[in-house]
Design goal:
It is built from 24 helices and eleven strands. The chain is an alpha+beta fold. The longest helix is centred in the middle third of the chain and has 29 residues. Bound molecules: protoporphyrin IX containing FE (HEM).
Length: 554
């Protein structure tokens, strides 16, 4: 009996190994190189145990080349680790071939059955959503409006909270956990942009967060850890997934139902508000841009109710919520990014841990960013300069150092280090190799941004490389892809950059930041699809001398 079982295992193993070897060797259908031994059924997960994944994949690329193939469970995957290849994938005909997203079972729960923008397959539904997102919800005009309203308001709320915390201690220096503050800020901005929940309640709208934002935050807080566990489910055989032994799927379904109920409640509330309003004349005069995202969508619904159903609206506006597994970006990414900037601003010199490697990042000059950025703001000390208002369009070039810091941080710490996974919809050829339909494509932005053949001293944090005094920065920007490339490039890029600039600029302008004595800023990266610090940053925050009077009045 034991003998026959052993024979069976050996036969399965030999057949799988021969099959994989033959596929790899087949003349014009030659797959990209990759690590040889793949476990039958499981593939290469044993090679990916080391965390974080983007660092492990960079190591494999160093051994096998800039395009390598892997087997992950029943999926073929190709990883590209060079700028040239990433551009080939996302800017030529291949961009269409790779415009699909892989369907992970756990993403079905959070992405409205794969109909949310980040998870949707390439096709008419995705095109319709994408057009609305870029034209109506995240256009330059709307980003301006959001800067004036939601982002500025929520930044002011955060500044007030920090100033009060500092005023409450006798030393005037508060110890604050930035991640929590930025998390609340991003939720506030999110809810204000989606539904304008604070504005609708009139008096008391200056509260730190609306009830809806609180509920949304609670749901998001609970969903996030489950997504990590749900990833494991994705690689289990279907019958085991169905059994849902750990109860992850059941819990996720409950939470997603709560989130959806909240979204549908917001849509109904906005519809009711519109009905009750004596809007006939006034409404016509209001520009669609001046409304919340739901308000804009309801206007579209009036013109085409079949297309813009409530579910369509909920799926579209929830894109800013936590990412479906397999997608990657959100306000979360942005929040984590501001947290990373803040870490850089507090540390001198910054020490960085990467697995076992602990090195001096040589970022002493980063702390020196505070004075130049402040000086660049011009009217320092005036209420106008301190107030979290977006710098006017023509004012933005006066903040070149801030722009450089943001670019350099996105280079070294791209929020989505492997972008979001793409999937080929047809057989195609990449760098002379055959890529079958249904192959998952990962682009290792983290490794591409540190490629020594492209960047001088790639491990150094050097904002000046983006051209503080000139327009050189444009060229450098084209050598990185923190927001992806091609058709599925992030549509929230302008909003993200605007918010990061505004929040970081305000934090620098209003407060002096330093690290807690004796503590080093730990830049260890958590292992996740979104890159963030494993250890939340606790920093010392002291109102800037010239700003005290202004902060007092907030
Ligand atoms: C620091 C902030 C952000 C970063 C680094 C970031 C990065 C990314 C990346 C790398 C992708 C995948 C691109 C690809 O598939 O190749 C993506 C997709 C996406 N992002 Fe962002 N993002 C950020 C903020 C935002 C914001 C604020 C929004 C909206 C409010 C947003 C909405 C989206 C959507 C909807 C997609 C999916 C697009 C599609 O599949 O067609 N992102 N983002």
């Amino acid at each position: 009996m034991v003998m026959s079982n052993l024979m069976l295992v050996l036969t399965v193993f030999m057949v799988s190994a021969t099959y994989l070897l033959m596929r790899r060797m087949r003349g014009k259908n030659r797959l990209p190189p990759g690590p040889g031994f793949a476990l039958p059924l499981a593939g290469h997960p044993h090679l990916l145990r080391e965390k974080p994944l983007h660092v492990t994949l960079a190591g494999l690329a160093a051994r096998h080349g800039p395009v390598l193939s892997l087997r992950l469970g029943r999926r073929d995957a190709v990883v590209v680790t060079s700028l040239r290849l990433a551009k080939e994938c996302f800017s030529s005909d291949l961009d269409v071939a790779f415009a699909n997203r892989p369907r992970f079972p756990s993403a079905r729960e959070v992405s409205f059955g794969y109909t949310g923008l980040p998870a949707a397959s390439y096709g008419p539904h995705w095109r319709a959503m994408r057009r609305i997102a870029t034209v109506h919800l995240l256009s330059a005009r709307r980003v301006d409006l959001m800067s004036d309203a939601a982002i500025a308001d929520e930044t002011r709320v955060m500044v007030r909270r920090l100033a009060r915390a500092a005023a409450a201690v006798s030393s005037g220096v508060a110890k604050v956990e930035l991640k929590r503050n930025l998390f609340e800020l991003s939720h506030g901005v999110l809810m204000e942009s989606i539904a304008g929940t604070k504005g609708k309640r009139g008096a008391g709208s200056d509260a730190d967060m609306s009830e809806e934002a609180h509920e949304f935050k609670k749901v998001v807080d609970e969903i996030m850890p489950l997504l990590g566990m749900a990833n494991l489910h994705d690689h289990l055989p279907a019958p085991l997934r169905w059994l849902d032994l750990g109860g992850v799927r059941r819990r996720l379904t409950e939470l997603v139902n709560r989130r959806n109920a909240l979204m549908h409640g917001l849509i109904d509330a906005e519809r009711e508000r519109r009905r009750q309003e004596d809007h006939a004349a006034d409404e016509e005069e209001l520009l669609p841009e001046s409304k919340s995202m739901i308000g804009v969508m309801l206007l579209l619904q009036e013109s085409d109710p079949q297309q813009y159903t409530d579910t369509f609206i909920a799926a579209l506006v929830t894109v800013s919520a936590p990412p479906p597994t397999g997608s990657s970006c959100t306000f979360t990414a942005k929040r984590m990014h501001i947290s990373t900037f803040s870490a850089l601003l507090c540390e001198e010199p910054l020490r960085r841990r990467h697995g076992d490697h602990v090195g001096d990042h040589g970022m002493g000059h980063v702390a020196a960013a505070q004075p130049p950025v402040r000086a660049a703001e011009g009217a320092r000390g005036s209420e106008r300069a301190c107030w979290p208002r977006p710098p006017p369009e023509q004012g933005r070039p006066h903040l070149p150092y801030l722009r450089c810091i943001i670019s350099e941080t996105l280079r070294l710490y791209p929020a989505a280090p492997l972008l979001a996974p793409h999937e080929s919809s047809s057989d195609c050829s990449l760098h002379g190799y055959h890529v079958p339909a249904g192959t998952m494509l990962l682009a290792n932005a983290y490794a591409i941004h540190r490629d020594p053949s492209v960047w001088d001293d790639p491990e150094e944090f050097r904002p000046e490389r983006f051209g503080v005094n000139s327009a050189d920065g444009q060229g450098q920007q084209g050598m990185m892809l923190p927001f992806g490339m091609g058709r599925r490039r992030c549509p929230g890029e302008s909003l993200a950059l605007r918010t990061m600039g505004l929040v970081l600029g305000t934090l620098i302008q209003c407060f002096d930041w330093s690290r807690v004595a004796g503590d080093e800023v730990d830049m260890t990266q958590a292992s996740a699809k979104i890159l963030y610090k494993a250890v939340p940053l606790v920093a010392l925050c002291k109102p800037h001398d010239n700003m005290r009077a202004v902060l007092h009045k907030i």
